[in-house]
Amino acid sequence: MKNKGSVFSLIPYYAWIILFVIAPILLVGYYSLLDLDGNFTFANYKQFFTSVYLKMTLSSFWYAFLITVFSLLISYPAAYLITRLKHKNLWLILIIIPSWINLLLKTYAFIGIFGNKGPINAFFEKIGLGNQQILFTDFSFIFVSVYIFIPFMILPIFNSLDKLNPALMDAAKDLGASRITTFRRVIIPMTMNGIKAGIQAVFIPALSLFMITRLIAGNKVITLGTAIEQQFLVTQNWGMGSTIAVFLIIIMFIIMFLTGSKEKGDAQYGKNK
C-alpha cells in the first residue's frame, strides 16, 4: 500500500512534465518540419545552416559568454563578501529583491537612465564630455543584461560559499598557503558546483534574450531569441521559428550537461576510495 501510494503521489509530477515540458518540445519539433503552407519539409533545417543563421548563433554565444563572464566577475566577490557580513541573509534578500520587479519596467527605467536626456548624459555635460550615445550600444545591452542576471548568479555561489567549512581555510593557512593560493586551490574548487549552477542560470537565458535587444540595443544586437520572435510575430514563419527553437533547446541541454554537478559522482568516488 505504501509503494502504491508513493506511485500515485508522483502522478501530478509526471503529468506536469508531460504536458508542460515534453509536449511543447514535441510540438516545436513538429512545426519545425513544416513550411509556410503546412507541408512536410527539411528546408528549415537546411536554411539554419546558412551563413546568416550561423553568424547569428555565434553572435548569441558571444554575447551570452560576455554577460556570463561579467556576471561571474561581479557576483563571486559580492557573494564572498556577503557571507562575511553579520546580517548576510538580509543583504542577500536586498540583492534578490530587484529580480522580483517586472523585467519590462526595469528595461524602461534604463532607457530613461541611458537616454540623451537621462541623468548620465546630464552628468557628462556638466563635466564637459558632452552628450554621449549610450543607449542602443553593445555596452548598454551588456550592462543591463548583467544587472538583470546578477541575482541569479549570486544565489548559487552564495549557497556554496556559505556551506564551506572554515576549517579548510584554517588548515590551508596552517600549512603555509597564502590567501591567493587558498582561494585558488581550496575555495574555488569547493564552490565549483555553485559556479556551474550560476553559469547555467545566466548563460542559458542569455542565449534567448529578445526584449532587451529590442529596447536597449535597438536591434543592433541580434540573438537567437530575437530571430525566434521575428519569425513567429513578424514573418509568421512558424516552421523556421520552431527550427531555431529546436537548436536553441539542443544547445541548452548540451550546456546543462557540460556544467552539470558532479557532486554525486565525487561522493561515490570518495566512498569507494
TrEMBL record:
<dbReference type="InterPro" id="IPR035906">
    <property type="entry name" value="MetI-like_sf"/>
</dbReference>
<keyword id="KW-0812">Transmembrane</keyword>
<feature type="transmembrane region" description="Helical">
    <location>
        <begin position="12"/>
        <end position="33"/>
    </location>
</feature>
<dbReference type="InterPro" id="IPR000515">
    <property type="entry name" value="MetI-like"/>
</dbReference>
<dbReference type="GO" id="GO:0005886">
    <property type="term" value="C:plasma membrane"/>
</dbReference>
<feature type="domain" description="ABC transmembrane type-1">
    <location>
        <begin position="57"/>
        <end position="259"/>
    </location>
</feature>
<feature type="transmembrane region" description="Helical">
    <location>
        <begin position="237"/>
        <end position="258"/>
    </location>
</feature>
<keyword id="KW-0813">Transport</keyword>
<feature type="transmembrane region" description="Helical">
    <location>
        <begin position="90"/>
        <end position="114"/>
    </location>
</feature>
<dbReference type="GO" id="GO:0055085">
    <property type="term" value="P:transmembrane transport"/>
</dbReference>
<keyword id="KW-1003">Cell membrane</keyword>
<keyword id="KW-1133">Transmembrane helix</keyword>
<feature type="transmembrane region" description="Helical">
    <location>
        <begin position="197"/>
        <end position="217"/>
    </location>
</feature>
<feature type="transmembrane region" description="Helical">
    <location>
        <begin position="61"/>
        <end position="83"/>
    </location>
</feature>
<keyword id="KW-0472">Membrane</keyword>
<comment type="similarity">
    <text>Belongs to the binding-protein-dependent transport system permease family. CysTW subfamily.</text>
</comment>
<feature type="transmembrane region" description="Helical">
    <location>
        <begin position="134"/>
        <end position="158"/>
    </location>
</feature>
<dbReference type="Pfam" id="PF00528">
    <property type="entry name" value="BPD_transp_1"/>
</dbReference>
<protein>
    <submittedName>
        <fullName>ABC-type spermidine/putrescine transport system permease subunit I</fullName>
    </submittedName>
</protein>
